[in-house]
């Protein structure tokens, strides 16, 4: 199991327990609507939690990996993603948080080839939607806290891998990256930041990324 997958498992577990802040909960809820396997995993966690409460038993931390393997083997697979019908471009969880659908987002130019719409900003969390033209690279940056990115349309890649529609990318203080949108079409993402980012890398490359060349 990769570190990214393990972090996503913990994120889904916190979603099931109801302990995520609203923007992160909307992000994970949308991911579950877009990924049938993730939705099955979440339902299995809910069933396990219910069984544990009923039996009065707790899951030993040392048994976590073994139980996760059991979950993946036994998780029921839904017939298909939910909440992405023709009537809405956003998953239901995200649309409820945003308040409008994708065609009605009031985008603002952030940098050449990048548009952004800030949904929430405080000292603790920032949530926003980001639109990137095909092939557009974001300036290289490092993180001072957790960053969650859900791909809504298109795809992007960085040194962690390639992330497509419905995927969640997770970055923290250990990650320094330069995400690049795929070339087949615009990339639209929902981002939740729990700390500001800091630009990094060679000055000439940063200048190129900022102006979009």
TrEMBL record:
Organism superkingdom: Bacteria
InterPro entries to which the protein is assigned, alphabetical: Anti-sigma_ChrR, Anti_sigma_zinc_sf, ChrR-like_cupin_dom, RmlC-like_jellyroll, RmlC_Cupin_sf
Domain ChrR-like cupin residue range list: 99-191
Gene3D superfamilies in the record: Anti-sigma factor, zinc-finger domain, Jelly Rolls
Any matching Pfam family: Cupin_7
SUPFAM superfamilies: RmlC-like cupins (SSF51182)
Signal peptide extent: none
Protein name: Anti-ECFsigma factor, ChrR
Organism, scientific name: Xaviernesmea oryzae
